[in-house]
Amino acid sequence: MQQNQQHTERWGDLLDDDGGDFDLSVLLPPPVVVGPDANGMKKVIEYHIDEEGNKVKVTTTTRVRMVRRSRRAIERRSWPKFGDAAKEAAGSRLTMVSTEEIFFDRTRASGNNADGAGPSSSADSLAKGNDKPGGGLLMVCRTCGKKGDHWTSKCPYKDLAPQQGESSADKPPSTDGSGGAAGKGGSGAYVPVFKRLGGDTSGADVMRRRNDENSVRVSNLSEDARDPDLAELFGQFGQLSRVYVAIDRVTGESRGFGFVNFVHREDAERAINKLNGYGYDNLILHVEWATPRPN
Amino acid sequence: MRPILMKGHERPLTFLRCNRDGDLLFSCAKDHTPTVWYADNGDRLGTYRGHNGAVWTCDVSRDSARLITGSADQTAKLWEVSTGKELFSFRFDAPARSVEFAIGDALAVVTTDNFMDHVPTVQVKHIAEDIDDQTEESALVITGIKGRINRAVWGPLNRTIITAGEDATIRIWDSETGQLLRESDKESGHQKTISSLSKSLDWSHFITGSLDKSAKLWDTRTLTLIKTYVTERPVNAVDISPTHDTVVLGGGQDAMNVTMTDRRAGKFEAKFYHKILQEEIGGVKGHFGPINALAFNPDGRSFSSGGEDGYVRLHHFDSDYFSIKM
Lengths: 295, 326
Description:
The structure holds two protein chains of two kinds. Chain A is α+β, with helices and mostly antiparallel strands. Chain A contains seven helices and eleven strands. Chain A has helices at about 10-15, 70-75, 120-130, 175-185, 205-210, 225-235, 265-275; strands at about 30-35, 40-50, 55-65, 95, 105, 215-220, 240-245, 255-260, 280, 285, 285-290. In chain A, the strands form three sheets. A four-stranded antiparallel beta sheet of chain A has the order 7-8-6-11, covered by helices on one side. Chain B has one helix and 28 strands. Chain B has one domain (about 5-325): 7 Propeller (Methylamine Dehydrogenase, Chain H), CATH 2.130.10.10. The radius of gyration of chain B is 18 Å and the shape is globular. Chain B is an all-beta fold. Chain B has a four-stranded antiparallel beta sheet with strand order 1-28-27-26, with no helix packed on it. A four-stranded antiparallel beta sheet of chain B has the order 2-3-4-5, with no helix packed on it. Chain B has a four-stranded antiparallel beta sheet with strand order 6-7-8-9, with no helix packed on it. At the A-B interface, helix 2, strand 4 and strand 5 of A face strand 1, strand 4, strand 5, strand 25 and strand 28 of B.
């Protein structure tokens, strides 16, 4: 058992409430210096007790930048402050470093070079997402191609037909450039819904794009059935806005059912009548309305 | 980058200017008090008290000893940069708008607005080396421009004066005789008020920004239109990089778009264009209101922007800006 001879003071004595000036600094953690990192940033974390007895943590982040200055500029540095700056309080917050990192946002060539547009817009926007300046998170939306604003699921232009699902006979597929530009009239202007390209300009058809009532459920699909197969099969009846085949994540096979959304209800009806009971890839398809039969 | 935010002005910024050595930044605003800051860390050095109206522009002499400011209180004032002392006051019959020292700092050009019955004028004043010899006398007065003159600057070798303003026309005048030498072409020139003008480092070309949502690059001697940069917002401020082939445009917002535009905070941006290819290369966001002033630092490694929100934002470029290849 060791007798600790150095401690002549005991913390119980230190915390005496006699209003005297006692030293609590022994309770504070020691200062930490996080050395200069790749960008030259150095952080010093210090603690002290302020007048009211509160423990205060002060983090000072500094970066040393060497600048060449002319002799006159160095003289100017030692000028005394004048005007309103002369009576400036020491802690005045006139000049502050921004707390958020601001990037030099590179402009990606959007609808401008349509002739060089090979890849589909989703691959393009992925590429946009990948080589971004700085190191922050860049949100890329596949539907409108706008970077930095929102993810695809939150796209305000959700009802634009996604580029890869479209397989209509009458409407030629838009180039990826105009697909991106279709979402916006310019990269900052607001384009009202009825004016956007990629959709019909009459109000009624815009409504019909919300076509969950034109949803057709296809079951008893073979296990290697995929979206393009359904698109090809059902596409003959009219414009499709969406096809989906349920895929088992583990095996990669089709789970045997899927959904097809038509733009026009009449097309969906005809598809159901013709394809229900149709032999497709060694199985008999079962095709019906997805929701309880709409009248 | 981490811009440095300087909130020294209570009212919108109108103009920013760096001194020749690039260590001082002068800011003018509608709050009557031009301010000088250190351009490296944004510390405020001092303010110049004395104006009674919005200060529209300023210029600093090459040795950074004298500052001249033009204000809506119908005066242009000369100040001692180091102490803030007002040295001289030129009085006019109308608000003074644009001021600039000539090469050699012995002359200055000042414009006055079309106020009440007064026509807009461009006046050249002698600047005496010894302030006791300073008089208010004009060496030259040019009248004959109809709309408000937003900017008047000296041409190469002080031989010419270039004006631009509300009538969307750029004019080149002889600085000795006041004769009109050239005028920009109406068809290819700007279609709306020219709000800003900035010269290249060697004064061989200059850029003008206009409310017609474009900026144009012109040759200083011949006034040929060299380049056009198109944007979607009216342009309030322009500048040319002294070291790279870049120009920057800062703008506002059409009154029409106020209800339709996405007004999320901090979305007003300064747009960078490649000077020669005319293509947009990037933008820097952050201002909470339209950008009214832009200035590159003479070393080309930083720039500052002043906004309607009263903030000056000083940006030191990251290395990725310098490695941009087109």
